[in-house]
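Instructor's aside before we start: the two examples that follow are unrelated to each other. I chose them only because their records fit on one page, so don't look for a connection. First example below.
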Amino acid sequence: MGLTPEEIRHRGHPIWAEIDLAAIRHNVRTLAGAAPGAELMGVVKGYAYGHGNPQAAQAMVEGGATRLGVARLAEGIHLREAGVDVPIHLFTEPPLDGIESLVEHRLTPTVYTSDFARVLSQRAEELGIRIPVHIKLDTGMHRVGILADDVPDAVAEISALPGLKVEGAWSHLAVADVIDHPHTRKQLDLFAELLDRIERAGIDLRFRHIANSAATMTLPDSHYDMVRCGIAAYGLSPGRGFENLLELRPAMSLRARVAMTKTVPAGDALSYGLAYELARTSNVVTVAAGYADGYDRRLSGRADVLIEGRRFKVSGTVCMDQFMVDIGDHSVPVGGVVTLMGRDGDSAITAEELAALIGTINYEVTTRVPSRVPRLYIDREAE
């Protein structure tokens, strides 16, 4: 849900995510520059990693993405209904009863099972068309895809189906986010071997792709005809050691308003469980954000927030809709803005910082911001 600042205020939203579309465009251009000669697919699954669609998808296209990638059929349909017209790749096979919608909305399917391929081909024949498909090869992640030993027979079967045109073959790297991990080289070598087998069988592959954001940034021999960039396109690091490899700009900030201020006497405690006891009489602000907004309960007493450019610690337990902050002798008015993630003045709280505090990854921090938190789309290049 994208709203204007006026709509956010009018509807009484006390928390919002600011999404800088200029940052997304910049990041896509930067990543494309790191993979010269390859097309770039912008990965916009998971509501664009929490950044929101179709706005994030359109920004990627404006930044140079020639194709988009989604995980589920409904995600692709949503983009088509919003007017996005570039090729949209579906990374997993939908249920067979979703094939009609897949074809209707001109989505490019991934194929890795005989049943799905046969039914898809049958529907294409009925319509008098040939549908371009990308075959998923399992090179060692073992999530979905055709195992290496099964590739020759499976690809021969799929390519013989009259309603399908094998346009590409692809795989996914399991640990490219760990620089120089030996399993990545093993996967790349197997991918190259399988591509050779496919092409020696007489199948001309227009697209060969295996590089994710991490590989795009560090492994030029993985780029082939196309790279698929998700996390880095939103300005977030794919893993440790990637932070300064390219000049990327985080696109999401998460901000909330002060709902109440009060002076609480020394010795009193705050929030559920009374886990935070005041060492001195202090000003306490209640922030209108909680774990129902994706602000994890495990940040209780651990995370910092930014108020007027200064860091303050979350004080006590994060509740479903609110949490409290001991600001000492400082004062903040009701309605004042608190930055939970993002930049305020010279200080910044990153998704990586929050992820480290709760033992997860930055992907989860942004994708867990739910739909009840409106997205405010801004364009810092235009300001």
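Example two begins here.
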Amino acid sequence: MLGAVRDGTATSRSELCAVTGLSRSTVTGLVLDLVGAGALVEIARGGADRPGRPTRRLQLAPRSDLVVAVDFGHSHCRVGVVDARGEVLAERNDSFDVDASADRALDHARRVIAALTEQVDRTRISGGAVGVPAPVDARTGAVGPGNVLPRWIDRRPAQELQAATGVAFDVDNDANLGALAEAAYGVARGVADLIYVKASTGIGAGLMLGGRIHHGVTGRAGEIGHVPVDPSGPICRCGNRGCLETAASVGQVLLAMQPRHGEELSLADVIELVKQSDPGAVRVISDAGAAIGRVLADVVNNLNPEMLVLGGELAAAGEPFRSAVRQSVERYAQPGIARELRIELGALAGRSELIGAAALALSAAEHRHRADANLSGSVRS
């Protein structure tokens, strides 16, 4: 509900009913709770020139929260300071071998946070969140065991950044944060059931079911990058053979292009070749999309979402990538499910995971604000 008011999708109780599908009485009760907690305000819109009962316009309470967002990929560290509208006020994105050392990566993020928060009023910072390219146990905030991010196993990045910066941090898997971002600020606003795919150095999916991120018991829901697609394929970093990441990740795209273009070719070069309709580049990107779509077809068959959002570095290839995913999903998914499925490119220009971390931090800050308001009310009473 707060997200719908924040992005302008709903500005009244009746519009909230339409957007959320909740009953009038449920929406009224929740609105009163949010107004009482200081998260929403209702402004009368009646007047002499508007006969009848005055209507009320909903808007966010005039709070000035800023949050710190940290997005760790396997090969980058991106940090931003973001406001409640999802606007990035300060940002830095560094190439960084995050897999090599949790200590160095977290210390790097700490230094960047310190530099960026000097550019804003630090007293406005109400929290932060960090995304990592590995399963995160939602119960403990710890990076789970396995070979996806082995030097991070059992580390608790939110707790460590909180201790280092004095800012209250939360943590989640990066693909889950991408789903949050696209639902709150991007192409999936108003969508309650969606799959967000981050196709980059690694491949993962964020699952939003009924408006909530589905983590699974140990945080491993959506780990599609390690679904075997070729039993005789190369060994994956997870220890299995022929996983999706060995067929469709950024590394595999570059490897396929190197015989013709050399080892210095970057993904940005490949994307530019795709835009120029280079047949080799289009074929490689399409092959990656087709492989990802084949795995996603099984996920779609089981979850029957409304939307599939494509993000990550490979999604920058645009329509050739999206078309390949769609064709593969349509071929392998149940026709009735595929027919109703919308497949879209992410709308946040490669920032989905960063903006998603901000959305998580803002939500946590709102919960803390409500808890503090409730505690203050209890003490006064």
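The two ends are 28 Å apart (CA to CA).
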